[in-house]
Automatic annotation (TrEMBL):
UniProt key word Thylakoid: no
Ranges of compositional bias, category Acidic residues: 604-616
Protein name as catalogued: HECT-type E3 ubiquitin transferase
Region ranges (Disordered): 591-630
PROSITE patterns documented for this protein: HECT, IQ
Gene3D superfamilies: Hect, E3 ligase catalytic domain (3.30.2410.10), Hect, E3 ligase catalytic domains (3.90.1750.10)
Active-site residues, Swiss-Prot/TrEMBL: 1057
SMART domains (UniProt xref): HECTc
UniProt EC number: 2.3.2.26
Pathway: Protein modification; protein ubiquitination
């Protein structure tokens, strides 16, 4: 469809506004431009529009300036009036009467930068202490202020209730300024005094704890508090503090500053709890902790995000800069929550206090749950609770109702909706808890355990393991997968509708104290733009939309991977064609891809301009963790948000592409193949390619017997230019050029010959498993190093490095060749190992996860050994294993030599035990499947990605990719082949429409052959025994038959480069069958004519 691989078919616009019609296109090309007639009118109108826009911009700017000035003038006037009132108090009232009015006024107007405010501060202090003070001494002023505040708390603590928040902010600044090494018991007493005040109303105590949490603990870098937290903790009632947070939680953080304040609150809360470890922890701590973690989960994930070593340099700069924005104190406290001691404490608190709470209040623990029917595995417990929810039942039974269900998200917290609101979030929490646990268990479960639940008769004797007892039945899996695919489809395909609904409907919760409900402040829809809808919208409180969607999709994909490897669900179970307009689906995908490309290109320049002013190397924090350049932090945070907003915008204009990228298996395989062909139409026999000038093709002379090495030399520098047409001239072993013109057939023979030589004749690059499937030789790097050492080449020398680089170049070039074959629709008779094809499908996100199940495709003996180890009933220590593995480094045919490598640091010192054997098995699988062949695989995929966009490869699973490379394994359809066969010579069908008698005999004989013999005939003619995916209409060039003369004693011959069978004019079916089978089974008769 497109002449270039990019898929961009737009042509440059050619607009003629002169009003003149040019009959000669060549004269118009060189005529000078004139500004007369319509052109002048258009230019004048454009100038007027620009002038009007300029005037509007000036008017808006003036309005903003006036608005800012009016606000500043009002604030200054209000402060001036309060200063005047404060001055009047000290001219009239008695000192004992004016102090209650003077202190709030002083706190409202005091500015350390104004010299005239210092005397006012001293007036208040002198009234309190009845003593003289040196106004010129700044430390003395600070001490005087602390003494003054302490005196107020002793005399009239209720006087500070109206300004309690400002009171704690002043003390917070003092904790920040005096530093961690200072000694100031007065400051400690000042902070805890309102919390310990007696003979005061309950409202004052609540206000004090609220201000302590929201105005003091949220401040940054409280160095004195952080170094003396134990002293402060003695005066804090933990239950009151947690109750205050739960009763009046802080607003959900929306800006960078508010998110940073939120993390400081969380860190200081953890520090206070740690200071009281010797006391019994309050259950309210668990609730408050869950509340704060739920509300800040997005920012915490972003701040702790690991940089992508394979990502772009821009992404690494942005993410690296964002990581630096997390202060040292906060980054030290947050990870303490996942320490062993802390987890044990939380578990103990949960066990003591969960009581008879509903399933929605259960935490995600892998343990037995007590029921009226006896202990039940946690997964089964959560599954029973999930399957009984109304949300699950509705979505699982009717996919078309999913969008309506999600639109019913509660929008208010009034008394009439409080019960419904609570039920909605409780049910979603139950579902999400089950999915979290199920994903965790699936990662630990091998196929043996997984399928035991589907076939209980195959289970091993004795008590089943926890994983096997947690397996779901077939009917349960069918119901679960229906729910997951219906929900995931709606979350991707209808995401724009959901976000628009969120922008119109604010979300509040009815019960923020409830354990598993996280509060969310009401948002004005006018403040929510398209770019930030996803960040503010959530299906249920406490988990953002993207995290929610990722969890649901992950669970669905993990079940689908099992089904794609060993099918157990009914055929067509995953399809959702009724929810898509399949008639225009392919065209819709092409249009969406075009719009995304245009949008991406239009925003690239804006992003480049905004990133030029950012210095990623500028440090954001000093050694003490204090802010150095807050503006730079904000800009880096905004850069990440812009990137996320851009991805959300692209997703909103491409719902079909979102489905193909995240759950392509809901679209029929044949439709996905059509889409793949739309974007990879490099067929050398197509009309577009035949119209390309032969002189414009990349030409090369290739010597027989050295095809791979010559191809690497001639075409390596092309990089992705290998997608373009090439022209091959073969040279025989005597240096003579072979006759013939490359009209596409020679190119096909060249590509198939390269793959045959590289894969089947050279065992250095690729090896086979027990099923004769190919994958990169995992020992290639070690064997190359061994050969270099044998040649006495110094390690890391120039020769050494060049030899290693050349080996990886060969892998990369093979990736390009495979991509070239796929790009041009040329099938090759190579079968790849399933785990290796999974890496193709995961190349876009580089998210291949090795598992013990994939070891089956790599090494059957190793796979069985790991299964025996997993199920070993005795003490693993008796086997004397450690976390090491032996890798072969010897060359093929040489005596076997191995080296021992650690699977983990100091692995030779870590014995394998019953407790850590799952970890050992996972490390063995990771080493064999990923680590050992990482360099080879990356090089191959890099080359493949130059020709085929990995985005389109991710549409297919491993078996589908094999069909895409090598064709369909289904039975050969003789009639389909007959309908799409081209005849030549005397076999051309005449005007009467009748086939030649010999041709009729050929089809009769082909019908009589079994499928294995038909495949031999097909391979004899086309070089591959499999039919094209979409039928023989897609075979390029078309299957052809021409006469091979009247000598009936001759064997049929073939030109595989042209898919041509040269068939002598046999007169009987017996003779044709005998000669044909002899030719295809003996391999004789191949030639190039």
């Amino acid at each position: 469809m497109f002449p270039t691989f990019t898929g961009n078919s737009r042509r440059a616009r050619n607009v003629n506004l002169s009003g003149q019609r040019t009959t000669n296109p060549f004269t118009s090309t060189w005529a000078p431009a004139t500004n007369v007639g319509a052109s002048k009118t258009v230019a004048h109108a454009q100038a007027e529009r620009q002038q009007r826009q300029h005037e509007r911009d000036r008017l808006k700017a003036a309005q903003r300036i006036q608005k800012t000035w009016r606000g500043h003038r009002v604030r200054q006037g209000l402060k001036a009036a309060r200063r005047q009132k404060l001055d009047q108090l000290y001219n009239t009232l008695d000192p004992e009467l004016r102090i209650a009015q003077a202190l709030p006024l002083l706190l409202a107007v005091y500015d350390a930068a104004r010299p005239d405010d210092r005397p006012r501060l001293l007036w208040v202090a002198e009234d309190l202490l009845k003593s003289e003070s040196d106004a010129a001494s700044t430390p003395a002023q600070a001490q005087l202020l602390l003494d003054s505040l302490g005196a107020i708390m002793k005399i009239r603590p209720q006087a500070i209730e109206p300004v309690i928040g400002r009171y704690y902010r002043v003390l917070g600044r003092a904790c920040h300024d005096i530093g961690p090494a200072s000694q100031s018991p007065e400051l400690v007493r000042g902070v805890v005094a309102p919390l310990l005040a007696t003979q005061v109303p309950e409202s004052f105590t609540k206000a004090a704890y609220h201000a302590f949490a929201h105005s003091f603990l949220t401040l940054h870098d409280l160095a004195f508090f952080e170094s003396n937290v134990a002293a402060f903790a003695t005066g804090v009632d933990q239950d009151r503090l947690y109750s205050s947070l739960l009763a009046a939680p802080p607003a959900e953080p929306k800006t960078y500053e508010s998110q940073a304040d939120f993390l400081w609150l969380l860190a200081h809360l953890i520090a206070l709890q740690d200071a009281k470890k010797q006391e019994v922890s309050s259950p309210l701590y668990l609730k408050a902790l869950y509340l704060l973690l739920s509300m800040s989960s997005t920012y915490i994930r972003t701040a702790f995000r690991m940089p992508d070593p394979k990502g772009s340099s821009e992404a690494r700069d942005v993410e690296g800069g964002l990581q630096q924005t997390l202060p040292l104190y906060v980054s030290d406290k947050l990870p303490s929550l996942i320490g062993k001691d802390e987890i044990s404490t939380l578990l103990e608190m949960f066990t003591m206090n969960h009581g008879a709470k509903s399933a929605s209040e259960m935490r995600l623990y892998l343990a037995d749950m007590s029921t009226q029917y006896g202990p039940l595995p946690a997964l089964k417990f959560f599954w029973n609770a999930t399957s009984r929810t109304s949300i699950f039942s509705t979505i699982a039974s009717n996919g078309e109702s999913t969008l309506d269900v999600l639109r019913q998200r509660p929008s208010g917290a009034g008394s009439s909706t409080a019960k419904e609101d609570s039920l909605w979030h409780r049910e979603w929490r139950t579902i999400l808890l089950f999915l979290e646990l199920y994903v965790f268990i699936l990662r630990l479960t091998d196929d043996d355990d997984f399928f035991s639940g589907l076939n209980p008769q195959s289970a091993v004797q004795g008590s089943p393991s926890r994983l096997r007892s947690s397996s779901l039945s077939m009917e349960e899996l069918k119901r679960l997968t229906r729910f997951l695919k219906h929900l995931s489809f709606t979350l991707y395909y209808s995401a724009t509708e959901l976000l628009e609904t969120a922008a119109r409907t604010p979300l509040t919760l009815s019960s923020p104290v409830e354990f598993l409900a996280s509060p969310s402040r009401r948002m004005d829809s006018a403040d929510v733009d398209v770019a930030s809808k996803t960040a503010s919208f959530s299906i249920t409180a406490g988990i953002e939309f993207e995290a929610f969607r990722t969890l649901v999709t992950a669970a669905m994909k993990m079940v689908y991977e099992r089904d794609s490897r060993r099918p157990f669900l009914p055929k067509g179970h995953w399809l959702m064609t009724s929810n898509l307009d399949m008639g225009g689906f392919v065209e819709g995908v092409v249009n969406e891809d075009q719009r995304q490309r245009e949008a991406r290109e239009s925003r690239e320049e804006e992003d480049e301009d905004s990133d030029e002013d950012m210095d990623p190397n500028e440090p954001n924090y000093t050694f003490a963790g204090q802010t150095r350049n807050r503006h730079a932090q904000v800009e880096k945070w905004k850069a990440v948000r812009r990137k996320e907003a851009r991805e959300r915008m692209l997703a909103s204009i491409g719902p079909r592409l979102e489905i193909l990228r995240n759950m392509p298996f809901v679209v029929p395989f044949e439709v996905r193949v059509q889409i793949f062909r739309q974007f990879h139409n490099g067929n050398p026999f197509s009309q577009n390619m035949q119209s390309v000038n032969v002189l414009a093709r990349h030409q090369a002379k290739i010597t027989r017997g050295h095809i791979f090495t010559d191809a690497l030399t001639k075409f390596w520098d092309l990089d992705d230019g290998l997608k373009e047409p090439i022209q091959i001239q073969f040279v025989d072993e005597f240096g003579m050029e072979e006759a013939g013109i490359d009209g596409g057939g020679v190119t096909k023979e060249f590509l198939t010959s390269v793959t045959k030589e590289a894969f089947t004749n050279d065992e250095r690059l690729f090896v086979t498993n027990s099923q004769n499937s190919y994958y990169p030789n995992p020992c290639a790097i070690d064997q190359q190093a061994e050969s270099l050492r044998a040649a006495q080449i110094t390690e890391n020398s120039e020769t050494w490095n060049e030899s290693m680089a050349d080996l990886l170049r060969q892998y990369e070039f093979l990736g390009r060749i495979i991509g070239k074959c796929m790009y041009e629709g040329i099938l090759i008779d190579i079968v790849f190992a399933g785990f290796f094809l999974l890496k193709w499908a995961s190349a876009r996100a580089d998210n291949y996860r090795p598992s013990i199940n994939d070891l089956h495709d790599l090494d059957e003996e190793l796979y069985q050994g790991m299964l025996q180890l997993k199920n070993y009933p005795g003490d693993i220590k008796d086997l004397d294993l450690d976390f090491t593995i032996n890798d072969q480094v010897s060359l093929p045919g040489a005596p076997v030599r191995t080296v021992t490598r650690n699977l983990v640091p100091n692995g030779d010192r870590i014995p394998v035990t019953n407790e850590n054997r799952p970890l050992y098995i996972s490390y063995v699988a990771r080493h064999r499947l990923v680590v050992q062949s990482r360099a080879q695989t990356r090089a191959f995929l890099r080359g493949l990605g130059m020709i085929i966009d990995p985005t389109w490869l991710s549409m297919f699973n491993q078996s589908e990719l094999q069909r895409l490379v090598g064709g369909d394994n289904s039975e050969i359809d003789v009639e389909d082949l007959r309908r799409h066969t081209v005849y030549g010579g005397v076999y051309v069908i005449g005007d009467d429409g009748e086939e030649h008698p010999t041709v009729k005999l050929f089809w009769d004989v082909l019908h009589s052959l079994d499928d294995a013999e038909r495949r031999l005939v097909l391979k004899y003619v086309t070089s591959t025994p499999r039919a094209p995916l979409l039928g023989f209409s897609q075979l390029s060039p078309a299957f052809s038959i021409r006469d091979g003369g009247q000598e009936v004693d001759r064997l049929p011959s073939a030109s595989t480069c042209m898919n041509l069978l040269k068939l002598p004019q046999y007169r009987t079916a017996e003779s044709l069958r005998e000669k044909l089978l002899y030719a295809v089974k003996s391999g004789a008769g191949f030639d190039l004519s």
